[in-house]
User: What shape does this take?
Amino acid sequence: MTPEQLATLSAAKVIDARGTACPGPLLEAKKGIGAVKIGQIIEVKSNDVGSRKDLAAWAGKVGHEFLGFLEADGHDRLFVCRKK
Assistant: This one.
């Protein structure tokens, strides 16, 4: 998705994992994805640069869709759509 499209998304659940190091944001995403329905989106806020790669790899591996990320004030906003 383009940054413009990502900016318009409304996440069903927002997970604030700022201040946690790897694998913290990934573990929080794994826990949080179960709290939303199939087709809904979670947003993970993280200031761990590795989260970009980690969340994308995890989503692909388990069958969810990594939509992308936006850079915000000192952190990333990462978006994952639950697919199963």
Q: What stands out?
A: The radius of gyration is 11 Å. The domain at 3-81 is CATH 3.30.110.40 (Translation Initiation Factor IF3). The chain has a mean pLDDT of 96.
